[in-house]
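Notebook entry, cofactor series.
This is the third protein in the set we're modelling with a bound small molecule. For this one the ligand is fe (ii) ion. I'm keeping the input format identical across the series so the outputs can be compared line by line later. Sequence and SMILES below, as received.
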Amino acid sequence: MNEALQTYLKDIQFSGDLKKDIEAFFAAYEDDETLGHTLSVASEAKRVATLYGADPVKAEQAALLHDISNVVPVAEMLDLAKKLSIEIMDEEYTYGRIVHQKLSKAMAREIFNITDQEILDAIECHTTLKSEASLMDKVLFISDKISWKLPGDHQYLLDARYKVDEMKLNEGVLIYLNQVWENRSKLKLIHPWLIQARAELMSTFPELETERFLLRQITHDNANDIFQTFSLDEVTKYYDVESFTNIEQAEKLIQTWHQRFENKQAIRWGITLKSDNRVVGTCGFHGWAKNHHKAAIGYELTPQFWRQGVMTEVLEKIMEYGFDTLELNRIEAFVEPENVGSRRVLEKVGFQAEGLLKDNYYWKNRFVDNVIYALIKKDFKKMTR
Ligand SMILES: [Fe+2]
Ligand SMILES: [Fe+2]
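Returned structure with ligand:
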């Protein structure tokens, strides 16, 4: 064992039973608080690992060990890390406590003889996560967060927990990372690993599922489906596009959607039948003004599926994603007054008409009025909870 760690050993008699040894370890430091937290993270990690098909035994072990470096006074953490030849990033000097995740890894290896890389890696990034995080990394990371008993109302932790339980681990993780990101001006440090992990999760196209449909990225293989829909006048009637006359137009549209997603300007899902993977419509957000937490929605559906509650089912799902994961506060929709079908869909989902925008745009040789609809996050939450 590295000499620098000897002083932290006290006179603990290790039994080889990790849970008992952890209890003895924190007892020697009279640190009931960290022990309590550790045990709740351990049972949560075991549960989440089982849910997602990760090894529950390893997850529990990683959780039992994740905060063992809490026994090291914060003022000594950077020093100890140096003595253990742990690589310290420049940013970590600004907030020494952040190295506790790396210290816990070293202590797990040196004091508790853990050699399993999956466990050690998960401990090492339990506070910040990192890019290319493994399932085990995410399991420990999110279990640590959703086990916290923080005073007051922390809706984002409840939201993250819902996502985890709904089998949407990445979305749950992203809710937490977004919360940190939003509060970055108040924090001493936002760790580069966390920034990378968040960027990576944000750039993966999010697949969503409703009862009848899978919402996924539209690929060039779907050009024919898109063409079929957009070539119909009844679909494009209220659209600012002419009906398509050739498949290249569909390919170009798909290309545009991809580019806008990559540039984080918009997101467009293909509404896909679970049975045969056919794209029967699309929906998504555009006009995304991140600083104002708002975006507009757009959608269309091939007529064969009209009047079957498809758009209501799909919009409810993407609203939830918009409010929770994209952190939208206001979602707008612009509809021509006579587009009764679309207005009915919006109203069913909870949108409220706010007024008439006269001559809002010029299209097909005439000025077109729009009714502006909006749905605000707190009203949506009231409806769905
Ligand atoms: Fe921690
Ligand atoms: Fe923790």
